[in-house]
Structure formats: structure tokens, C-alpha cells
Amino acid sequence: MEIEALKRKWEVNSITFKDRRKLHSIHSQSYAPAVLNQSNEIDWNKYYDTIEMALSIAFTNPESAVEGLTDAEIDMLGQAIIQNYLVIEKKANGGVV
Questions:
Q1: For residue 13, how many C-alpha atoms fall within 13 Å in the half-sphere facing its CB?
Q2: φ, ψ dihedrals at 9, nearest 5°
Q3: What is the pLDDT of residues 2-57, one digit of tens each?
Q4: E strands within the chain?
Q5: Which neighbouring-strand residues pair with 96?
Q6: What's the predicted TM-score (pTM) here?
Q7: Burial status of residue 55 (CB atoms within 10 A of its CB: 0-12, 13-18, 19 or more)
Q8: 3-state helix, strand, coil in the chain (%, to 5)
Q9: Residue 20: other Cβ atoms inside 10 A
Q10: In degrees rounded to 5, what are phi and psi of residue 87?
Q11: Which of 6, 19, 32, 83 is the residue whose CA sits 20 to 30 A from 26?
Q12: Which of 17, 28, 41, 44 is nearest to 96 (CA)?
């Protein structure tokens, strides 16, 4: 599977149904405080757990795959992987489909 992020193409592993459900669960938990409290509050620990899980699924050796990237770039790559795996699309109003 190929995705585009950071102005280049990345070859990433496909995701299984089981891993997609786990990833979705952790991703949802990171935004649960915002939904429940109607705020902008994010559970940052869950958010970073989601990025780490996505990178671990996407690459056989995540450490070597992201070698040379800054932490911010790794986060952007992880977010792009999550969006592709979970098929998250942006709405015109900024929400998600």
C-alpha cells in the first residue's frame, strides 16, 4: 500500500481488520474527552499511542523507516498513516466524515 506524506511516497504494510479495529479504538479514545466535555481537550497519551501503533503496523522496522525525520515529521507521517488506515476524510466545514 502506498501513501503520500511529507512530499514523498511511502510504502506501508496493509492493515488487518483486527489491527484496524484496535487502531480505531485507541484513536477514538484520544478524542473522547473533547466529545464528552464539548471542548478541545485531547488525551495526548492516547494520541501518541495511536501514532506509535500506526507506525508499528505500517513498517516492519519503524525506527529505520523514520530515521532522519524530526519528531514533528514523524507525527505528521503517523497522522497520514492513521488517516489512510481508518479512511478519515475531511468535511468542507473542517469536521470528519
A1: 16
A2: -100, 140
A3: 999 999 999 999 999 999 999 999 999 998 877 777 878 888 999 999 999 999 99
A4: 2-5, 8-11
A5: 90
A6: 0.83
A7: buried
A8: 60, 10, 30
A9: 15
A10: 50, 55
A11: 6
A12: 28
